[in-house]
Amino acid sequence: MADQGADTQLMAWALDYLRRFDVTRQRLRQHLLKKATRSAALRSRWGHVEPDPELDEDAAPHELRERVDAVLGELERRRLLDDRRHAEARLTSLQARGLAPAVARARLRQQGVSASVIAGAEASVHDDAGETPREAALSAAWAAARRRGFGPFRADAQRGDERDRDLAKLLRAGHAFEHVRAVIDAPTVDGVH
Asked: Which of 12-21, 108-117, 182-191 is predicted least confidently?
């Protein structure tokens, strides 16, 4: 028989966290497991588990993991937790900040978003923006140059001296060479994406 009080507490913690942060399923799961194992009230229900700052989710009791997964399932059913929605929002904001598409994908993978969800989110973001993936990558390179004052966003007197450094910095940031060269060698910012 499930302990309704504990499940209600887990749901309350989850809703509170979701009110403050847009997170992935994996991140919310980690948060709930950590919070529950550190909670004195719940610790007595599932047996004593020493709190670990780097909690390995497998260290939590099996019953607790099942309850957390049930709460996450209910949140997904209610559409309060959605990795695809999170991925779309993050991809849009990371592209606007000038991160290369590969870097944005890597960040989402680190957050526990599956490759298939990322691919679907990318397609949706490109459709919504009316851009091809190539155009989106070029827009991100423009945004990175604008943000850092590279290429046509640099004073004319400095452009020639800094060209190679600007190219190298954007390439290290993960942008494709063809996009970096097009941005850095653009004569003006007219027609910028």
From this structure: 182-191
- Give the tens place of pLDDT for each residue, 66-87: 999 999 999 999 999 999 999 9
For residue 154 the two structure tokens come to 């640099």
Residue reference for tokens 């850092």: 148
Task: State the pTM of this model.
Answer: 0.77
CA distances from 94 to 33, 106, 122, 152 (A): 29, 11, 12, 22
Amino acid at 171: L
Domains of the chain, by residue range, sit at 4-77, 83-134, 141-184
Question: What span, in angstroms and rounded, lies between the C-alpha atoms of 112 and 27?
Answer: 7
Instruction: In whole angstroms, give the CA distance from residue 162 to residue 35.
Output: 50
- What span, in angstroms and rounded, lies between the C-alpha atoms of 66 and 60? 10
